Amino acid sequence: MRLQHKITWIGWLLWLCIGSLQAAVPVADDGAAARALLEKALGYYHDQGDKAFAAFSRQGEFVDHDRYVFVVDTRGVMLASGGPSSVLIGRDVSEVLGPDLRKAFKDALKTPEANGIQQAEYRWQNWADGKIERKRVYFQRIGERILAVGYYLPRASAEQAKALLERTATALSSDQPGTLKAINALQGGFLEDDLYVFVVDLDSGRYLAHGTNLRLLNTDFSKVKDPQGKPVGEPMLALMARQDQGEYDYRWKNPVTGKTEDKHAYLRKVGNLLVAVGYYSP
To answer: Global pTM?
Structure first.
């Protein structure tokens, strides 16, 4: 029961820590900054003990942009927080969460304290936009206290984009109508973080599916240009007229950050369909 209780509250505290965060710097820097902030907090706690909670809970050296330190005890009581969860200090924040999050931390909570800082990554709802996105937290147990710093991962990798393209191509080959419907449902499976699928009918040149913007459905893909006026649709269609797969670089709005960023798209021909997935870089 004790392990189950730990799993329960740590999932809840992660929601408190990262649910409202928005990334302000590139992912690699964000991760390094989060870990560095936790290491700083651990050193301060080593010197000050529970007296450190006052410093952790005010706007100061333990708040770094949208990253902040928070502390809970093994019973699930919030002891300190420099973020929105500060309103829950002194309260039991335990809550039963879904099996995915419990499983993600079951093994981590068995790790000996002497093993130092641990981290976990999982998929969770971003309470700012309602989407299911990736989260990561760094944490360490010190006796009956858990010190942690978390952050939100806004950008998927090239490998993840290729994997989503492969899954989509396979799904379209086995059930084209069902897959197009699923893509246009704008839900999980074909929408992951800032990755999404779009599909164009190569015969008509029109969108059949789009993972984030249903207003594009049935519009002429050949007319699409990026915000700087660079053609996007026409060169992709020309590429697919010559070969069965390819890649194309352009600028496009990232649905997670809301900013126009560089995008590298992977293209695949599936029957008479152009299927594409691209990843962003700032």
So the answer is: 0.59
